[in-house]
User: What shape does this take?
Amino acid sequence: MKKPIKPIIVASAILAIAVPIIVLMQLQAAPDFKATLAGANEVPPVATQATGEATFFLSQDGMSLTFKLTAANIENITQSHIHTAATGVNGPVVAWLYPSAPPAVLIPGAFNGVLSEGTLTADSLRGVLAGRPLAELIAAIRVGNAYVNVHTSQRPGGEMRGQIQ
Assistant: This one.
């Protein structure tokens, strides 16, 4: 007696469609944290057309933070970091985003696109958080005490900034 092939074909077709959709949905998941960067957020505010966005995804075990930083309408980028401080207050660097570690590296001329992407761990932390667990940075982010900024050769103190929320 022959086994029906039709159910196997139908099941295979459903899997062939469903698996890519599920994977795509996971790839487009909302970030755990986000910062919208603008010159008006700098302290003191900066008049600039530069804008940016940083998105952060916390691993399930809380031991790593994957990020993507984009920038637009900006020139002569030198570096970007996460700092700890509340809105309206300047604070210390606690993690490098671009480049991944000192020294600063000039990107000459106009820039529009992905500035940096990677994964931060406890080993990535610097300054007041050096040697501390990543959970301390996450705790600062959760209470609104962390921000991203991007520095340029024209504005070494920072051209745009965004609080991580």
